[in-house]
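Mods, move this if it's the wrong board.
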Amino acid sequence: MPQSLATDADRPIERDLLAAQSEIIELIAAGAPLSDTLDRITVQVERLAAPAMCSILLLEADRTRMRLASAPSLPAAYNQAIDGQPIGPAAGSCGTAMYRRAAVIVRDIASDPLWADYRDLALGHGLRACWSQPIIDNSGAVLGAFALYHRVPREPVRAEWRIVETMSSLVRVALIPHRREDALREQLHFMQQLLDAIPSPIFYKDTKGAYLGGNAAFERTLGMRAADFIGRTVHEVAPKEFAGTYHAADQALFRHPGVQVYEAQLPYPDGTSRDMLFHKATFLRPDNSIGGLVGVLIDITERKRVEGEMRRLASIVQLTDDAIISVTREGIVASWNRGAEKLFGYPAEEMLGKPGQAIVPPERIEEAARQFDRILDGGGSERFETERLRKDGARVLVALTLSPVTDANGAIIGIATIARDITARVRADHALRLAKEEAEMASRAKSQFLANMSHELRTPLNAVLGFSEVIRDGLMGEDMPRYREYAADIHRAGEHLLNLINDVLDLSKVEVGRLILNDDLVEVADLVESCVRLLEVRAREGGVAIERRVRSGLPLIRGDALRLKQILLNILSNAVKFTPAKGRVEVSAEVTAAGDMLLAVADTGIGMAARDIPVALAPFRQVEDALSRRFEGTGLGLPLAKSLTELHGGTLEIESEPGHGTTVRITLPAARLNADAPRG
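Not the wrong board. Structure tokens:
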């Protein structure tokens, strides 16, 4: 109650106020319509507080505007203008009282600033004073405002304000149940709208199995409106072949309250059936007894079809020998089939959820990352051949196909990899290529050999035929010295032919493993000296100096003396042949730190490129073309020397550079040295 009110102790109203209050309470208790109750309140107030005019305004649900509920004595035009106006800090008496949540007494509307926006409206209808009390429920929420108007400026006396407070309390009492009903109806309406907005069918039943309701999706599923199935059981709604299953599931749920999930077929109005996931749960009444059940149906027809297709594809993926792997955008392994387990040696449990880089060689990680980024950026699939790592560290050659993995919206969510082991194929291709190259090389070698042999055989044969014809026909008369010289030429040519044939035969025996060594103890110095003496004349004629660097006290060599001499002689012969005038050939022999015997022939000749060394060591081949070469020879010297050296368990190595000469090193193993044997 406002503290400064005019007193009017002589005006007894308590009896009349109590009578009016009792009447209103009876109306509320009888469940009278709210409008009738509020109208009766205003009539009683105007009777008790005459000549006042009473109004009741209610706050809208949005809590920003006021609506007229009852004002029988106020001008209709005024009521219409006030209805729907916003509340606020200066919204007349009622709008301000609701805003402030406190009583507002305006003695003179003509001068009070709270009525600035409504002054002309009120004065135009002869209204000069207005006292307003907010109506607040037990929770503190503002429900509206109760007001008394007067046509003259004045303040309320205590008795009048007592009427305002009492009757505004009755308005609150009348409003609360109706507000609760409105709120409940609004809540139910909202819940139904919410259920109808859910695309999955939803229904609820009582404990006897009768439908209590359902959402719009359930109505569409059944092909009937809610009014047609509410109160009916599943036996009255569903086909006979399905009703029994549904009813049995309901009864099982009531026997064991809680949640129930199962799959079943659901018939549709068009005669088709779809796979549904039934998700049911019991609900309780306020007294905790079971009130019924609520069910949600989820159409899983497409999911089951997809799952079936996925199982079929998964079985194919698992059975294939190809490695099929999928990774996320972050490079984490999402799938790893049996083919991947077999190819890379990692079981699936070791790779799932781990980075896929474990199978990428370190030097190829950056390359793999670039390929990964290109595909994630929309670059499409990529196919290539590369290397990958097995769990045991071995490398495997694979043909890879990388493809983007997309979601239902087409967004790339990862990469699928198909890897096929091509090691056998690559090896076969390589072997085929080598065989082809060897065949071509053999063909070229044959042609070159024939050309070489033609040249090498024809030259001494021409000499034999020519000189023997001169001797036979006596073309030089009785010049016997000349004939003896020709005979010597014939002999040398014959020796050359014999050596040539022997080289071919020796190489053939080595290749077929039929050449047998006749081991003996060989003095290294004697071996070197005998070979040098045989070539000194030719060397002198060519202006080439031969130097010997043989350490004294070298151990004897256990080997075939003839073959060792053949090895050294072939190498020395080549050195002299390919060293120009004023050049030098050096022959050396020593025991290495490893205990092996090292024989070396170094010259200052024309030399050759490193790429030509394998050619020089191949049978019947020469670095220079057979038809244009400057030096005669069959090309058997070095290959035969190498084969004979290896037959002794040794190695033959060549070091050469064009224009800087050649060094040939023959290493015989320590097992062939005999340090205790006497020297000759």
